[in-house]
Amino acid sequence: MDTQDKGAAAPGGYLGAFLAAMTLTATYVLYGYDTAGTLAEETHEPRRKAPRAILQALCAAGVMGGLLLMAALMSARDIADPRLAQQEGGLPFIINQTLGKGLGTVFLAAVVFAILVCALAVQTSTARLMYAMARDNQLPFSRALAHVSASARTPALANLTVGIMAAGILVVYAGYPRVIEAVIALAVLWANLAYLMLTSIFLVKRLRGWPGRGGTSMAGLFALGRWGLAVNLLAVLWGVFIVINIAWPRPDAGNADLLIPYAPLACTAGLVLLGVGYYGVVQRRKAPGGM
Predict the structure, then answer these.
(1) pTM given for the model
(2) CA separation for the pair 126, 130 (Å, rounded)
(3) What's the mean pLDDT in 226-235?
């Protein structure tokens, strides 16, 4: 429990650093398995099994993540080694130090492969979501994005657009390494905003009596039963806390660059304004007498 004076000069001290880091593991595990659940058309009874798989994954990630942290701390030869806090340090440094350079490199290569698979799953889900929204005419250039290639039998432009956007982040990263910090914060913030919107809608529905006595609309599917309202309320409160926690600007005292700490707020505000403006125009065009 020794903080070794970490965060002594930062706002909130060690608690500030802890709050900034506490959501990453749970968010990425939840989002990763949620993404896998959306790709489960070939899974038998996905609406019943996918939610249970997500809960099992979260429990397993909590247990395994805790064991991993304990094992890493116990394996470190010197917990006060300054190299642990450097950019090239951290867990990879402990793995190479403990297992040796050869076996450590093999282990880290397996980790990189696992991250690549997860990234491809998220990219696939993003392309499918873009195609689905374009098919409903809810995106700019919807007709082109919703087009399915006759030869590949896939929405080629949607796949290409997502790939180019991902590659664009890497291009920017090559010239400005700290941009990855903003990307991580935005990814966590926007994912939790999406969850918060859904849990808020479901909370309103539950307060109005959904799914009704007996829950016939959920017959045979995953359901929270009598715990539904309490869990839903906790989910909304947790979502609000996470959104505020991630979006809260934390300026670096040793760096005058304001792009990173204020990027989540600025980009979210820009996204909201862009969305309101675009959908305002779309709705006016759909209204009777519109252009």
Answers:
(1) 0.76
(2) 6
(3) 93
